[in-house]
Amino acid sequence: MRLTIDRTLAPRFALLCLGIWLNAADTLVTATIMPSVARDIGGYAYFGWSVAAYLTGSIVAGACSGKLSLALGLRRATAFSGLVYAIGCAMSAVAPDFVTFILGRLVQGLGAGAVVALCYVAITALFPESLWPRVYGAVAGVWGAATLLGPTLGGLFAAIGFWRGAFWMFVVQAIIFIAAVMVMLPADKGDAARGRVPVPQLALLVLAVSLIGAAGVVASPRLAVSLAVGGLIGMAAMLAVNARTHDRLLPKSAADLRTATGLGLLTIFSTEAAVIGFTVYGPAFIQAQHNASPLLAGYVVGAIAAGWTLCALLVAKVPAERDGRFVRLGVVVILLGALASAWATPRGTLTETALALAVMGAGFGLCHAFIARRTIGGAPADEQATASGAVPTSQLIGGATGAAGAGAMANLLGFSHGIDPTLANAQGPVLFAAFLPLAVVGVLAAWRLGGR
Asked: How far apart, in whole angstroms, are the C-alpha atoms of residue 423 and residue 428?
């Protein structure tokens, strides 16, 4: 019987790995080639939008993934998401200007966000709860492969002056993913009544993220602050509406810090918002400060994923009664690593930068799977699918918020036309440390979560 079960689960696990790979490799490849993209088609002042647009699309799709899987069925929803991702990649590949490129990244994010979130849904739907940490840890191995191959692929495409080829490569992989979904996932019927999309919350969320993103491209610091505050108010309004409706975007307890679900989602949001700036601007700073190639810069920033992957694999078999310790330990390591990285990225050597970023990534690897398990497990049974999708969605919301904020701060500090080495040395620590208070919020929330 055990052999039969393993044979049933193995192809589904392979499918999850392929879906995670699309997002993991895309993130590192794109981070590596973005300086080349900006030099080729312009738009350095809107550099952060390449990330913000992608994450905004991912937020919208990821937040609706639980509902989408209920409405269409898991197989059809996942295949459709893969198709949207392929279309977005093709748009980015043929973009003649930065506006078209951003639109392509938005569509690409819609597909990638849904694919990743549905993979989380698939984990809880296709595997018993006792296997969740092991599956999360094993899937993290995909990030290890992406850490090695992502910067290599991006660096090679950038080195030959054909960054567009990277996106065509993902079009091909997305087609393979769609075919695998149709073969490996079991057919299931959706329920349109249960899968209604929560339009009011979604509209407020898009508005909030757009306002925060706009704060990164306006010239007036006062207007930028006003837009950012408006975005935060929009997010608060979204949470308030979500708690009072039956068609929820996130679990009802998402904003309730008395629950494990609320604490877990706040921890995920805060830590991601605090550190996303290193992914957005890290490669550009490293290339400017050390005259490094796109390939080398990609590998240095890829140390974040390397640290995450290694530690996730090491703690994959930690029993449930000990996971609270790792929840607390992980977020403290994230904070310490982010502090070190804020200094090392603009001022340290390549070795110091890579080590600091690896420590920061290790913190995520130590705690992410256990935070996810407590967040999902703390939700009522009828909200398990929604809570599963909320884990990556909260991470994406944090990423979009942090990326938009980093863009606003970068423009304010004088980086709107590129990374000048002298200015980078003087103002770089300010750029990267500006959002570390959010990491402190994450530590406080995780400390309570770990003690539950």
From this structure: 7
Which pLDDT tens digit goes with each residue over 210-228? 787 677 667 677 787 788 7
Q: What element of type H or E holds 325? A: helix 323-347
Q: How far is CA 261 from the centre of its chain?
A: 19
CA 425 – CA 419 distance, rounded (Å):
10
Please tell me the total count of domains within the chain. Answer: 1
Assigned token pair, 217: 């491209």
Map residue 414 onto helix, strand or coil. Answer: coil
Beta-carbon count within 10 A of 384 CB: 18
Q: Are 55 and 272 in contact (CB under 8 A)?
A: no
DSSP 320: G
Report the CATH number that the domain containing residue 225 is assigned in CATH.
Answer: 1.20.1250.20
C-alpha 390/C-alpha 230 separation (Å) is: 23
- φ and ψ of 446, to 5 deg: -65, -30
CA distances from 48 to 53, 151, 270 (A): 8, 19, 19
Domain extent for 304: 2-450
Helix/strand/coil for 430: helix
Q: What is the pTM of this model?
A: 0.79
Count Cα atoms within 13 angstroms, Cβ side, for 348: 18
Say how far apart CA 285 and CA 429 lie, in whole Å: 11
Comparing CA positions, the residue from 349, 406, 424, 347 lying closest to residue 31 is 406
Longest CA–CA span in the chain (Å) reads 66
The average pLDDT across 352-377 equals 91
Burial of 31-47, coded b for 16+ CB within 10 Å and e otherwise, reads bbbbbbbbebeebbbbb
Q: Give the pair of three-digit tokens for residue 359.
A: 């420590």
Examine the pLDDT at 10 and tell me if it is beyond 60. yes
CB 266 within 8 A of CB 331: no
% of the chain at pLDDT higher than 70: 92
Tokens found for residue 147: 């850490």
pLDDT over 60 (residue 192): no
